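Handoff note, outgoing to incoming analyst
You'll be picking up this chain. Sequence as last confirmed:
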Amino acid sequence: QVQLQESGPGLVKPSQMLALTCTVSGDSITTKRYDWSWIRQPPGKGLEWMGAIGYDDSINYSPSLKSRTSISRDTSKNQFSLQLSSVTPEDTAVYYCARIGGPAYWGQGTQVTVSS
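Most recent structure output, in case you need it:
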């Protein structure tokens, strides 16, 4: 059973950096075929794909967020991480990590609120 769990602060102040980690169990983030994504859903809006890191450490970002987003991984911990810089209240959302490709698996999501 593949499981993903997001972790990180639930409250971030404007202009600061949002940092989240996704811990994966039941599969390796280096398994061929799969990409590991970050996706968010602002209140009252649809899902927004933010970016992904591939099994081969390749990284792709949403063009609209590319200038503020960084995705990395720690294979020793089977984790991948998201950093979003210069946050504003518009970055308030539920943030999900997910395995994309083949059967998809999602974390339960973590609420992040940007507020002073």
